[in-house]
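Priority: medium. Attachment 1 of 2:
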């Protein structure tokens, strides 16, 4: 644990840009490298290319860079077992092992695990065939959710109003056309109702502490309409969840999860992202993710006043219970500017105006995190569906949003779309 640390971040989206931004602020960090990064991250850190779907290529980059600490952003490298490979070689890495990441990579594993450890979640059945589905539906109410077992980048969850719809959904998942191997088995689940909250716990294999909560906006359209996306915006305020409820979630979800994983021989280290639905019967787990969320992370990084490296170190060294985290009081929000046509087909390589060369040169207190951008002949162009995450932390949500939407007036690229109602539920 030196004060001249070189940190390597794996990933190349808005979440990673926000983590790189936070790492660059740390007095303990002397160099940040990001693989593969993106057009905006390249202005904060040195970027090196990597194929994130190849374990050997990921390993090649880490071994070549020899960082003091590697931080894994997305789920794909976790699912491939990059953390296990680095640990085997005695390298410091933040994130769960392949076995621990199963809380995210297999919904069937996660549901069975929750049942084993009495963690509150919707009633369910794991099905391997259409016959299983038809049999299990008899024990479920008409409204159900059909979920592909494996990683599906948000595309594997289908809400169904009737058993007939559920059978259709199951057929499309099992056919493999929709999701390939991720659909080899599926989870049928009772449909729940209520607002959703993203709860983040920092885990060190033995215990966990809560981070700030956030809420994201998954739908493309204002008023939460239209198809699902990776997330069109998010906000984080202290009021999202009161202290007794946070304590309840720690006691009934986060701590049983960490203790359960340890008891089963697969201790969980990293971020446990608990997707909660606040039902009339209390909080219920919708899903676990095993890394930071995107775009929730952008808001969390701007609220975090503690040194991010201290969080990573404490998790790796089994000391999270000693951490006293400091958060900026008030609120943070992130509004995503997306390519026209997203989440369907969209064009790439479109010039982005209004960034003014240096990030945030003009926008006091606003950070423009880059998600899908690339550097082309010295200019920043679009390179993905979600392009930018315009983010601010202020004394309250209204002030944060005001700054963000003012900045968005100056940023433009052909076809750019963003939601004007981020945070509306809290206002
Ligand atoms: P998941 O990937 O499991 O979190 O599901 C994605 C989204 O589908 C969630 O954020 C919810 O909006 C919705 N969803 C998942 N499971 C349920 C459920 N049991 N009841 C109602 N909505 C659900």
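Attachment 2 of 2:
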């Amino acid at each position: 644990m030196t004060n001249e640390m070189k940190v390597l971040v794996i990933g190349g989206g808005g979440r990673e840009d926000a983590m790189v931004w936070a790492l660059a602020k740390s007095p303990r960090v002397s160099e940040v490298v990001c693989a593969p990064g993106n057009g905006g991250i390249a202005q904060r850190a040195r970027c090196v290319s990597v194929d994130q779907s190849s374990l050997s290529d990921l390993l090649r980059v880490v071994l070549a860079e020899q960082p003091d600490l590697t931080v894994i952003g997305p789920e794909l490298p976790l699912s491939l077992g990059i953390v296990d490979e680095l640990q085997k070689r005695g390298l410091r890495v933040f994130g769960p092992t392949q076995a621990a990441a199963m809380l995210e990579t297999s919904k069937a594993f996660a549901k069975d695990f929750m049942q084993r450890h009495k963690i509150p979640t919707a009633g369910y059945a794991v099905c391997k065939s259409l016959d299983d589905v038809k049999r299990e539906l008899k024990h479920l109410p008409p409204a159900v959710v059909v979920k592909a077992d494996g990683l599906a980048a948000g595309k594997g969850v289908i809400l169904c109003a009737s058993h007939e719809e559920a059978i259709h959904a199951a057929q499309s998942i099992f056919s493999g056309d929709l999701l390939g191997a991720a659909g080899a088995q599926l989870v049928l689940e009772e449909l729940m109702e209520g607002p959703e909250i993203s709860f983040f716990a920092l885990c060190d294999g033995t215990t966990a502490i809560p981070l700030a909560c956030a809420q994201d906006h998954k739908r493309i359209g204002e008023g939460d309409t239209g198809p699902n996306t990776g997330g069109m915006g998010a906000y984080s305020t202290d009021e999202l969840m009161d202290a007794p409820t946070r304590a309840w979630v720690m006691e009934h979800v986060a701590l049983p999860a960490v203790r359960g994983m340890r008891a089963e021989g697969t201790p969980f280290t990293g971020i446990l992202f608990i997707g909660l639905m606040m039902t009339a019967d209390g909080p219920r787990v919708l899903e676990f993710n095993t890394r930071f969320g995107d775009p929730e992370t952008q808001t969390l990084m701007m609220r975090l006043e503690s040194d991010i490296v201290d969080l990573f170190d404490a998790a790796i060294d089994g000391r999270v219970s000693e951490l006293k985290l400091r958060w900026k009081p008030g609120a943070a929000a992130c509004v995503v500017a997306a390519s026209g046509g997203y989440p369907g087909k969209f064009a790439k390589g479109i010039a982005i105006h209004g960034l003014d060369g240096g990030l945030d040169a003009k926008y006091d207190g606003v950070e423009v995190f880059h998600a899908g951008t690339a550097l082309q002949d010295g200019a920043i162009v679009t390179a993905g569906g979600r392009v930018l995450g315009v983010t601010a932390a202020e004394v309250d949500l209204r002030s944060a949003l005001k700054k963000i939407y003012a900045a968005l007036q100056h940023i433009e690229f052909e076809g750019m779309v963003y939601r004007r109602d981020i945070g509306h539920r809290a206002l």
